[in-house]
Amino acid sequence: REHTRGMWLDGRLIAALRLVTHTVRLGEARLKMGGFAAVTTEPAFRGKGYMAQLMNDSMRYLQGHGYHIAALFGIADFYHRWGFASVLPEYVSIIEMHEADVAAVGRGKHRAIKPGDVPAVQRIHNRNDEETACSIIRIAAHISNRWNRWKHGRVITDDKGKVVAYFLGGAQGGDYSVDEVGVADYDWCPAVLNACMAQAKSEYVSRIRFAAPPTHPMARYLLQYRSDHEMHVSRNSNGMMAATNIGETLECMAPEWEALLMRAGASALCAEFTLVIGRKPWRIRAHRGAVDVAQTNGANKISVSPIELMQLLSGSRHLDEILALKRRVVKTPGMTLLTALFPKRAPYVWHLDRF
Questions:
Q1: Which domains does the chain have, with CATH numbers?
Q2: How far is residue 282's CA from residue 102's CA, in Å, rounded to a whole number?
Q3: What is the spatial distance between Cα 224 and Cα 238, in angstroms, rounded to a whole number?
C-alpha cells in the first residue's frame, strides 16, 4: 500500500513525499515499516522548513497507524533529526573474469525468466533471506509489479527442468553487475557463477559484481576464491531506519529475542535491563526463556538515543561499541541478556526492494 502526502501554499503544491508500507524481517520478528520515497520540494521553497513540517506530519501519521519503524534512502544530514540511523550498508562481492573461470562449474541450464518461474524464484529468495536482517518480506505480486526489470533476469534449471537458481544483472561500466541472486541450495553457486560469466563475456566486461549481504550463499561461496568483498557505510544518509513507536517495536521483538536466548543456550536465564530512551524507561526482562517488555523502571539502566536504539535493533553496530561510550553499572546477568538480545547482524535491503 502507498499514498502521497503533500503540503500546499496558496493552493500550490510545494512539497510532497510518498509513503509505502512493507513488512520487515528481523529474525523471528516482523515489523510494520513505512518507507519514505520521492521526497521533494519545489526549488523556490527549499531551505524554508516546509519539508521538515511535512516530515513531522508523516511521522505522526506512522505513529498513529501502527507502524513500528520507518525507512528511507535519502540525502545527507537531514533525516537524523527524526531518529533515522544509517543502518543499511551496501555490500558488494567482486570477482575477476579469469578467477571466475576457475570457480565456475557448468551445471544445469540457464535461460531467460518466464512469468511461470515467479513462484519458484519467490521461494528461493525467501529461503536465502532468512538470515538477512531488515530485509523486506515480498508480497506475491512483487515480481509481476516490477516485470519491466525482472524480464531481464535469468533462471537456472536442473536436469528435470526445475528452477534451482536465478539472477538479474547487466553491464555497468566495466562490470557485469548482479543486483539480485538466489540459489535453492549452496551447491548451485558454481552454476550461477558460470551462467553470470557467460552473460559477462557477451558484454565484454572484465569483472562480475554481486550486490548481496555477507550472509547470502553467493557471497559466502566467493570467499573461497580470489575476490574483493566491500562494505560501504554512510553517515546520516542513504539507507536509514528509525523506530516510530518504541514500545510496540520492542514488544514485537519478543519472539526474536526468545529465539536468540534458545540458540544461545540461555533459556534458563532470569535477568533484566532497562533502556532509557528519550527519558522514558523500558524494562526488558527474561524469565526462563520468556521475554517481556514494560514501560517501567528496572535494574541495569542504560541510556540510549533513538539512533542508537535503531543501531542495536538492526545489529548494524556492535553492542560493545555503544556501551563503551556509556556510564553504566550492569551486573553480569543483565550483560549476558544484553549480549544475547543484541547480536551483530548484516542488515540489508535488496536494490529491487528500495523505494
A1: 3-87+234-243 (3.40.630.30), 90-232 (3.40.630.30), 246-341 (3.30.1050.10)
A2: 54
A3: 31
Amino acid at 47: G
Q: Higher model confidence: residue 87 or residue 131?
A: 87
Q: Among all chains, which residue has been given the C-alpha cell 535519502?
A: 74
Q: Interior CA angle at 318 toward 312 and 324, to 5°?
A: 100
Query: How many angstroms separate the CA atoms of 278 and 24, rounded?
Result: 24
* 8 A C-beta contact, residue 157 and residue 111: yes
Q: Which pairing describes strands 154-157 and 109-112: parallel, antiparallel, or unpaired?
A: antiparallel
Encode 75-119 in three state secondary structure: CCCCHHHHCCEECCCEEEEEEEHHHHHHHCCCCCEEEECCHHHHH
Q: Cell 541495569: give the residue.
A: 300
**Mean predicted confidence (pLDDT) in 166-187:** 97
pLDDT score recorded for residue 63: 97
Q: How far apart are the first and last CA of the chain?
A: 12
The per-residue pLDDT for range 222-237, each reduced to its tens digit, is 999 999 999 999 999 9
- What pLDDT is attached to residue 268? 96
How far apart are alpha carbons 166 and 217 in whole angstroms? 13
